[in-house]
Amino acid sequence: MTVAATKIVGDMTSLPDAPQTTPSSVPIILDGWQGDGAASADGGAVRDGSGRDGSGRAGSGQGSGHWQGPSERLFAGLNPQQREAAEYRGQALRIVAGAGSGKTSVLTRRIAGLIESREAWPSEILAITFTNKAANEMRERVEHLLGGKAQGMWISTFHSACVRILRREAETIGKTPSFTIYDSGDTRALLKRIIKELDADTLGFTVGSAANRISKLKNELTDLETHARTANLSDPQEVMFLEIFRQYTRELRRANAFDFDDLIAETVFLFRAFPRVAALYQSRFRHILVDEYQDTNHAQYSLIRELTMPVAPDIVDDLEAHGRNVRPLRDAAGVIPSASLTVVGDSDQSIYAFRGADIRNIVEFERDFPGAKVVLLEQNYRSTQNILSAANSVIANNFDRKDKKLWTAVGDGEKIVGYTGYSGHDEAQFVADEIEKLHGAGMAYKDIAVFYRTNAQTRALEEIFIRSALPYKVMGGTKFYERAEIKDAMAYLITVANPDDFLALRRILNTPKRGIGPATETQLSSYAQDNGLSFRGAMRDAGSLGLGPKVTAAILQLSNLLDEAAAKVDPSNPAGISPVADVLTFLLDGSGYLEALRNSRDPQDEARAENVDELVAVTKEFARNNPDGTLVDFLTEVSLVAAADEIDDSSGAVSLMTLHTAKGLEYDAVFLTGIEEDLLPHRMSANEPGGPAEERRLFYVGITRAKKRLFLSLAMTRAQFGETAVAMPSRYLQEIPADLIDWRQSPGSANGRGGSQSRALNARRPGIGAGSGGSGWNDSLAASTFRQERPKAEWPNRVTGKVRDNGDLELAPGDRIRHADFGDGRVTQVTGQGAKRVAHVQFEKVGAKKLLIKIAPIDKL
What we know:
Elements: H1 3-12, H2 80-87, E1 92-97, H3 103-116, E2 125-129, H4 132-146, E3 154-157, H5 158-168, E4 180-182, H6 184-198, H7 207-219, H8 224-230, H9 236-254, E5 257-259, H10 260-273, H11 275-284, E6 287-290, H12 298-307, H13 313-321, E7 340-345, H14 360-363, H15 365-368, E8 373-377, H16 385-395, E9 416-421, H17 424-440, E10 448-452, H18 458-467, E11 472-474, H19 484-497, H20 502-509, H21 518-530, H22 535-540, H23 549-568, H24 580-591, H25 593-599, H26 603-625, H27 631-639, E12 654-658, H28 659-662, E13 667-672, H29 691-703, E14 706-715, E15 717-720, E16 723-726, E17 741-745, H30 779-782, E18 816-819, E19 823-831, E20 838-843, E21 847-852, E22 858-860
Parallel strand pairs: 1-7, 1-8, 2-3, 2-6, 4-5, 6-7, 9-14, 9-17, 10-12, 10-13, 11-12, 13-14
Antiparallel strand pairs: 15-16, 18-19, 18-22, 19-20, 20-21
Helix pairs in contact: 2-3, 3-4, 5-10, 6-7, 6-9, 10-11, 10-12, 11-13, 16-29, 17-18, 19-20, 19-23, 23-24, 24-26
């Protein structure tokens, strides 16, 4: 075996939280790494990877005459199908978990059962989720069931698990363990510079297009060299893209950095290139559980396949020769069998094809793992039966799916409410009015959500909500860690942790302003290259560049500041390692960054300073939660925070979000808006990877977020490309049985052509008279058989969305007003202060409304 291979195997024996060959202090581990069924001196049976001994019986616990399975309390409250999934012990298990079917309970009980029955050490379990929030919830539930016995498990996201592996194996692939993780903002900044230097914009390249293509290639495990071999080199655009990709890859390598897509791809490449490294994790993780398997892309799928490969006898021999006691895991042929794999998912909720998710991963699971057990979880614990029946009817129109029917024991509940408005503003006013009715009946704003297909739909909703003094929050705005001032402060920390990260260093070089411009930066860079120095090394030697005294002093001052900060986190520092909060405060004070914000005349800089203060608070909270946490640990934690994790569902405001953002969430009341052709399904869906079938799954996901009340709405007209066009009801509405929906209209003439049903169900079709009801036209006819009549010139209660600056208009109870949309009314109450004063008005024709006095289109009579 080579020296490199010897080092790899030698390193494997010292994983920080792997079971060791010495007895463990963790209560559940009674006999050390050798386990309950380890070979004894008198030739006793050897436990295999399933926790069974050679005779097929489960391994016995220390001091006990026979093996005992998990206690009954772990499975209390599970229905028969959930229990079957939690107790199954085969090689591969697919749990088809319908929306709201309690899959987290099943996963946590399954994990707890494996540990309590001593079939697995906690550190032999790897559970993968897609969000940090889901991982934390799963970990907390298992710890609640088992207490301290659960310590040592890996329950994390794909990216978190890969970061841990890559930091441990960094030297094997030519990195240092302190490598930086570039987020999307860092990636875009680097690509922007590369595209500018190459004049690639002249060939139509944008930062977004280049970033998306590189990301897609990495998620398909296609690296630069592989792509170059198949590229069309006679195409100038392809040649330019290759150069962008090449320079981007080189800059990442030079900065000792990975981007987010690298984390999984590089782990897969590591396992394939170094089988002995792979064997460490294949032999360690004997039970692998993956949540939301329908959302996995090719790289994630490949990672799971690598982790569940058997370990060949010769590699097992090498592991044992270097102190790794894996003998209990070997079968009769000397092989360590594949780990047990459990995947949980629902192909009906696969909605991320645009991100590279491949629905075939879950649909073809039984082909990939012959003999796999499949358990269907169809009992729903979230929604009423009317909501579930609508969801079942819609999704049944998709083919190539495992049939299931969601049901609940809580009863039918209230009917779904449908509404056909004249315009987007009319629809938004209906939503606002219904929300106020729900709130008045005792439902909290935070338990209500409004979903839409595209972000462009929020304009009318926001205008009406603001005008109606309705508290709301748009999910998916600028996130905390993407704000410029936070990225500046984080760049200081990154530069201290990873001096080779040129991107972070460039960001802070002249932030705050210290007179170091692009020309000086170029001189420093050239000096570094000419003298074989790093950029930081060139900064330390700034006195030799012949720059002006002021600029030289500024460079040296920043260099000294960073060096002093680096000393604070150096493990060899006699004074010890400083907390991250102290390091950040030192950098902010020494650089003058916070002082510059506070002294600025820009009113927004006050809020920016508050954001930086909040970051300091985050570092202090990190220290409380991680007493031994290092700067690298903090940077890793921040890098792995995902968008959905930041959603605040206790904000006391109505949540507005796209259907894609809604995945995994639930609300007492849900409003699904814009259920129209060209929006849902979206006009571009025919050319997208998932096609119209994925759009239907998106509608299904939206429906199944609702617990008690569901509202479906659409408009007769919708702005498209700056013009107002007639909007056609979505084909999906006809897939819902008519008796499940209580259709309401705008007051007046919303019923089309004199019919008795809503316009959404009242399309004229060949051979069917006007006004006929109908439920179930063919998808292929849906878009073509509507008569696209011009909207009526007059429309009672047409809501315009007008606003007006009312200045210091004063209103008091008893005042009469005239509203541009609602007509005459009388003020019954005024609440709030200053710009947030709200008038409660009883209108003669439309009833009670709330108005934000400052902007409402009203006149005092």
